[in-house]
Write a structure and sequence with these properties.
The chain is mainly alpha-helical. It has a domain of about 210 residues. Helix content is about 75%, strand content about 5%. The chain has a two-stranded antiparallel sheet with strand order 1-4. Strands 2-3 form a two-stranded antiparallel ribbon. Helix 2 packs parallel to helix 6 and helix 3 packs parallel to helix 5.
C-alpha cells in the first residue's frame, strides 16, 4: 500500500513539475528564460556524459570536444551549404558520434586516471585545431556567425520562449530514450562493466564493445546538442569549448549522482542556475558556490539524487 501511494505521489509530482515548466516562461522575464534555456542545454550535455561516466564508469574529461564538433559541423554546413538546422541536428550528432568512435577505439582499453589524462589531451587537440582555422573552415579565434534558424511551418524559433520549449522538448525526448536504454540489455551490460569489468568479461560480455558504444552514443548526443547551442548563441568560437566546460560537465554528473538521470537535472541546476541566483553577491558568489560543493562532497558524496544501485553499494560499504 505504501509503495502504491509513493507511486501516485511521484506521478502527481511529475505532473506538477511539467505544469510549472509549461507556465514558467509566461511569468518569468527573458533573462531567467535564457538561464532556463542554458540549463536545458547543460542537462542534455550532462545526460550525454552520464552515459560514459555514470553508466559505464569511464573517466572522460574531454567531453566538450564532441560538443564543439557538433556545433562547428552545424555552423560550417549551415554557412557554406545552407543546410537546414533540422537536418543538421542528426548530421552533427552523427559527425560527433563518428569522431567519438574513432577517438575511443584506440584508447578504450585504458582505465581510471590514464583514460582521464588522454581525454584531456584529446579535448585540447580539438580546441587548438579549431583555433588554428584548418583549411579556412572554423574562422580561427573569431569563430563563425550563424545566420540560419530553426523553423516550424515557416515560423522562426528566435525568441527566448521559443528556445525554451525547443530545448526542454529535446530534454524530455532524451530522458525517455535513456530510461528505455537503461532498462535494455545494453544498459545492463554497461552497469555490469561499471561494477566489475573482469566479472563482466567472465560472463561473456564484450566489455570493449560496450564501452565503445557508450562513448559513441554520449558523443553523438553532445554533438546534436551543439546544433541547438549554435542556433541559440549565433556566434560559435573556440572559447565556448575549453577544458573548463568539460570540468563543469564532469561536476554535473558527480554532483547529481553517477548514473542518475534526475541527478543530472539537479546537478545542472546547481552548476548553471545557482551561480545566477548568487549574482547579487558577485564578489563572493564563487566562494559560496565552492563551499556548497565541498559541503556536499563531505555530507552527501553519493550526489544530490543518486541512482538506487549506487545508493545500495554505498550503504553496503558503510556496513562493512
Amino acid at each position: 500500500m505504501a509503495e502504491r501511494m509513493g507511486g501516485y505521489l511521484s506521478k502527481w509530482g511529475l505532473h506538477v513539475i511539467i505544469g510549472i515548466g509549461i507556465i514558467f516562461p509566461h511569468v518569468a522575464g527573458n533573462y531567467w528564460i535564457d538561464v532556463a534555456v542554458f540549463w536545458g542545454i547543460y542537462v542534455l550535455l550532462g545526460l550525454s556524459l552520464n552515459i560514459i561516466v555514470g553508466e559505464v564508469g569511464l573517466f572522460n574529461m574531454g567531453h566538450s570536444a564532441f560538443f564543439a564538433i557538433g556545433a562547428y559541423t552545424t555552423a560550417i554546413l549551415s554557412e557554406r551549404f545552407g543546410v537546414s538546422l533540422w537536418l543538421l541536428l542528426p548530421l552533427s550528432g552523427l559527425a560527433a558520434g563518428v569522431a567519438g568512435y574513432i577517438l575511443a577505439k584506440p584508447i578504450i582499453h585504458l582505465r581510471g586516471d590514464y583514460l582521464l589524462i588522454v581525454t584531456i589531451g584529446l579535448n585540447e587537440i580539438i580546441r587548438i585545431t579549431l583555433l588554428n582555422n584548418p583549411w579556412g573552415l572554423t574562422g580561427g579565434p573569431n569563430g563563425i556567425i550563424m545566420l540560419d534558424q530553426f523553423r516550424i511551418f515557416g515560423y522562426a524559433i528566435q525568441r527566448p520562449i521559443d528556445f525554451y520549449y525547443l530545448v526542454w522538448a529535446f530534454v524530455a525526448i532524451t530522458v525517455f530514450v535513456l530510461i528505455r536504454l537503461q532498462r535494455s540489455r545494453i544498459g545492463r551490460c554497461w552497469n555490469y562493466v561499471r561494477e566489475d569489468e573482469i566479472a563482466a568479461q567472465a560472463m561473456g560480455i564484450d566489455t570493449r564493445w560496450a564501452k565503445v558504444v557508450a562513448f559513441t552514443l554520449g558523443a553523438a548526443i553532445a554533438g546534436a546538442t551543439g546544433t541547438v547551442f549554435a542556433a541559440k548563441l549565433v556566434v560559435i568560437s573556440p572559447e565556448s569549448f575549453t577544458f573548463m566546460e568539460s570540468v563543469i560537465l564532469f561536476c554535473i554528473v558527480i554532483l547529481g549522482g553517477m548514473g542518475s538521470i534526475p541527478g543530472v537535472i539537479l546537478g545542472s541546476a546547481g552548476m548553471m542556475v545557482l551561480p545566477e541566483l548568487l549574482r547579487n553577491f558577485a564578489q563572493y558568489r564563487m566562494l559560496f558556490f565552492g563551499l556548497a560543493l565541498v559541503l556536499m562532497m563531505i555530507f552527501r558524496p553519493q550526489g544530490l539524487w543518486p541512482s538506487r544501485r549506487w545508493t545500495t553499494i554505498l550503504r553496503e560499504g558503510e556496513g562493512e
